[in-house]
Amino acid sequence: MTIKCKKCNHEAIVFQKYSGMHLCKKHFVEDVERKIKLTIRKDYSIQKNEVIAVALSGGKDSSVALYMMHKILGKRPDIEIVAISVDEGIHGYRPQSLEVAKNLTKMLGIRHIIRSFKEVHGVTMDELAVMEREKGTCSYCGVLRKSILNKVALEVGATKLVTGHNLDDEAQTILLNHFRGDMERMVRLAPPAAIEGLVLRAKPLRNIPEKEVALYALVNALPVDFSECPYAGEALRGEVRELLNNFETKHPGTKYSLLRGFDKLAGALAKEMPPAKIEKCRICGDTCTEDVCQACKLLGRD
Do the strands 160-162 and 111-116 form a parallel or antiparallel pair, or are they unpaired? Predict the structure, then answer.
């Protein structure tokens, strides 16, 4: 039996348990795009003459983020969109995703900059993975990648740096920070304020579930690499992901509730906590909260 869309008579392609709605392709796409536009208006309003950098890995989330920024802002002559990709140096994984990223930027006609760990940090992720490290592989990768994205975004004069974090990512991180009792990180998760030397981060997909991001990419025939990084799989985050997915299955809307509750809490936390002290790293000159930035610490430059 064919299930009809809740909003029209066409065949449904998705059932949103949290909303109780079956949606056809047209109304599913409209629903996703409406949520993204609302998030941008509410948290990351775009002004005149902005340069918007988009972190592009070639995966589903960053590809949808770039596609949507182009769809919303691509016709504005005063706005420039620049895609930034980071080549971490992961054999058998990153080369193919970079090719996908190149295909998407070519399709959209967007300027594309690629920088590597090797040229900026002097080491690849594969080389780091076999070294004795103080933290897990993902911790190193995340810090070093963020450092490059911020450097390049500053170089191109970007006013915002868009990332592809979706609802699942945000809910997992919120819960992880609760478990760790890390209030400073909790505050930093909230829609941020501009800080000199750090390009303001924007997460237009933060209200879109991961599965819906993947479906949106598929129905729009976007070039996307669905393979998983061989170093992925931080133990605690994996457990939190499983925990949240189980709760979402039994109690639809759990992830949205967690995000809404956090957004209310974040404002109160920000008022209670003293503002972070902003300094310049004495090694590389990057903006950070201590005299040596996290990237330099991890690479033993301190």
Answer: unpaired
Whole-number Cα distances in Å, 138 to 48, 52, 89, 145, 237? 37, 26, 13, 10, 11
Sign of the dihedral through C-alpha 187, 191, 195, 197: positive
Q: pLDDT, tens digit, for every residue of 13-38?
A: 999 999 999 999 999 999 999 999 99
Condensed to tens digits (0 to 9), the pLDDT of residues 104-155 reads 999 999 999 999 999 999 999 999 888 866 677 888 899 999 999 999 999 9
Give one word for 58, left, alpha or beta, with left for phi > 0 and alpha for psi -120 to 50: left
Helix, coil or strand: residue 55: strand
Tokens of 90: 């992961």
For residue 286, tell me if it sits in a domain. Answer: no
Element (H, E) at 129: helix 125-129
End-to-end Cα spacing for the chain: 65
The reply to whether 99 falls in a domain is yes
Both tokens of 134, joined, read: 């103080």
* Number of domains within the chain: 1
Q: Is the pLDDT reported for residue 10 higher than 90?
A: yes
Please give the C-alpha separations between residue 34 and each of 29, 189, 260, in angstroms, as whole numbers.
Answer: 8, 22, 17
| Pairwise CA distance, residues 64 & 62, whole Å | 5
Residues 6+ apart with CB under 8 A from 132: none
pTM for the whole structure:
0.93
Q: Which two tokens stand for residue 184?
A: 């400073």
CATH of the domain at 87: 3.40.50.620
**Residues 237-282: pLDDT tens digits?**
889 999 999 999 999 999 999 999 988 887 777 677 666 678 899 9
Q: Which domain holds residue 255?
A: 25-274
Amino acid 182: pLDDT: 74
Distances from the Cα of 257 to the Cαs of 14, 18, 41, 170, in angstroms?
21, 10, 21, 12
Q: What is the DSSP letter of 78?
A: T
- Asked, for residue 236, whether it belongs to a domain, the answer is yes
